[in-house]
Amino acid sequence: MDRLCFGTFARTLQSAMQIPNSNQAVVELLLDLVAEEASDGELSASFSIRAKTVSGLMNFTDNVHEDIVALSSTSKVIDKMPLKFTSKIMLVPMLVDDLIENLKLIINADKSISPVTRDEMVTFADKEHLSDFLSTAYLYALNKSNKIVIGKGDMEIAAELAPDDMVLLNKIYAKYPRPKYLPVPNEPMDEELAYIAQLLEAYAEAAGVPGLSRVALTGYPKYSNDLRQRRKEYYAAETIRRGTREVFKESDADQFELLKEETYDGIFDIHAQDYKSGYERLLKVMTQVSSIQINKCSLSKLPEWIGNKEKKGVCHILVNDGKISWVVRDE
């Protein structure tokens, strides 16, 4: 995640700490570095380090307690912090370089940090000045908002979270339930004519007849049922295509285009093979597309958005686009 806050600092430090380095242990240790300097009345009764507090801080759903934030700016905390990082934070020696580099990446990527402050922090980013580097970054992180406001950039945030950040991931995903399926009209719309024409050609080739119309399919129940299913697949994919407009802002990459690109890449080899008929190619491609992993586009992260029906429907859209065809004739 490209911002320096308590959660990102704690997670980065945790990856290089010796055991015990559980979420609870790390949060307790870091907050105690500040809390132990509190005089009477400087920590209110509302401050605690319960499991709920730990979860909120590590999953970016809560901010650091205001009393800790206030204390972190006092000279008694600032002056002692480098020594505390030396004496109380036990690191795995082999992981120190990784810790420094990972923390530098976060600092350099955080556009909210002023150039002057960034340069001051990064100046200490080496083993010789490790305690100064960590203490400076930590005190800065304490004074930044830890809580993520779900909204703009949700999918970018979700993509950067670890799989076990389920609290925040579920909060993001819950905002985007799967769009309601578009109904399949009785008569094909104009935008369906291209892929349906290819299907009819594939059916005719398999049936050994010069051509087939939709009306003529009544005499071919197998292909009539197949067309009915293919239209459901097309509208499942079209539902997702339209749904992306409501989820992703215009400045984002076209997520549906990424889905089409990844689908095309996943079926290219199986589509290019030789088959007895276009219908056989259709079936082979549909089997293949059901098994491919869709990882590149953010749509794949939204639960229940992309299933087999949607992936098959994307193939029909690729036919519409002229990217693939079921009946392939030698030029």
Description:
This protein has 331 residues and is mainly alpha-helical. The protein has 2 domains: 168 residues, no CATH class; 131 residues, no CATH class. It is built from 15 helices and no strands. Helix 11 packs across helix 15. It starts with 5 loop residues before the first helix and ends in an 11-residue tail after the last helix.
Present the secondary structure layout.
Elements lengths: L5 H9 L8 H13 L15 H8 L7 H6 L3 H14 L7 H14 L5 H9 L6 H13 L11 H7 L5 H8 L19 H15 L13 H27 L7 H18 L5 H14 L16 H13 L11
Helix pairs in contact: 1-2, 1-6, 1-8, 2-3, 5-8, 11-14, 11-15, 12-15, 13-14, 13-15, 14-15
Low-confidence stretches: none
* Number of β-strand runs: 0
The rough form would be described as: elongated
Report the biggest beta sheet as strand number plus sense, adding barrel if it closes: none
What is the overall number of helices?
15
Structural class: mainly alpha
CA-CA gap between termini: 51 Å
Count of all domains: 2
Strand content: under 5%
Radius of gyration from the CA trace? 28 Å
| Amount of helix | 55-70%
Q: SSE order in H/E notation?
A: HHHHHHHHHHHHHHH
- Overall pLDDT: 89
Question: Can you summarize this structure?
Answer:
By secondary structure, the protein is mostly helical. It contains 15 helices and no strands. The chain has two domains: 6-173, no CATH class; 190-320, no CATH class.
